[in-house]
Amino acid sequence: CTSASGGSATISFNVVVPAPVVVTNPTLSLSANGVSVSNGSTVTATGGSASFSWGSTNAVSCMLNGTSVQTSGSQTFSGLTTGTRTYSCTSASGGSATISFNVVVP
After folding, report:
1. Could you read off the pLDDT of 92-104 as tens digits, one per residue?
2. Residues ≥6 apart with Cβ < 8 Å to 3
3. For the chain, what is the total number of helices (H) and then of strands (E)?
4. 59 band by pLDDT with thresholds 50, 70 and 90
């Protein structure tokens, strides 16, 4: 800027642009009764029970059949009823992934 008397002033500043946030989605694997489960798969839970094994990469929290589980493990679930279930995980960066499958109790 220049004043009427000829003086001037300068203001300097830096603009800091933050790095973009990278969201990483987890990668999931799921099997039931020894058979791989993917989106839309059907799991047979004879007597209302089924044995599940699961794993994930880039996940910090997971849910299976409405129960909080470790990011990898195995467990037999009993008391299952016919319906849709999910295995879902969330990453530290806020990404998520879900496998939705059907349970059938004969």
Report:
1. 999 999 999 999 9
2. none
3. 0, 9
4. very high
Counting beta carbons within 10 angstroms of the beta carbon of residue 46, is it exposed (0 to 12), middle (13 to 18) or buried (19 or more)? exposed
Query: Could you tell me the CA-to-CA distances from 38 to 17, 20, 54, 102 in Å, in that order?
Result: 41, 32, 12, 10
> Strand order of the sheet with strand 61-64?
42-44, 96-104, 83-90, 61-64, 67-69
CA-CA distance, 52 to 41, in Å (whole number)? 13
Cβ atoms 56, 27 nearer than 8 A = yes
Q: Which amino acid is at 59?
A: A
Token reading at 87: 């295995």
